[in-house]
Specification:
70 residues, 1 helix, two-stranded antiparallel ribbon, 3-stranded antiparallel β-sheet, alpha+beta
């Protein structure tokens, strides 16, 4: 599964960070890869060791930077 660097505790916290213009990046631990050239992906949070409490679809660019959130 894909997570967000900075480990926002809620989907609202991620949306607020994007609204403020803060750069947020998606990552996949282990062998996972983000889509080449960017695209829509599913993310969840917060990441291990906390239990996952939220899920979202985000648009990432080629570097993994989150551009938009649904």
């Amino acid at each position: 599964m894909t997570y967000v660097r900075g480990n926002p505790k809620t989907k609202k916290a991620l949306k607020d960070a994007l609204t403020r213009g803060q750069s947020m990046y998606a990552f996949e631990p282990g062998m996972g890869r983000l889509p080449d050239g960017g695209g829509w992906i599913s993310i969840e949070g917060p990441h291990y060791p906390e239990p996952h409490r939220w899920y979202a679809r985000v648009l990432v660019d080629a570097t993994g930077k989150i551009v938009s959130i649904k």
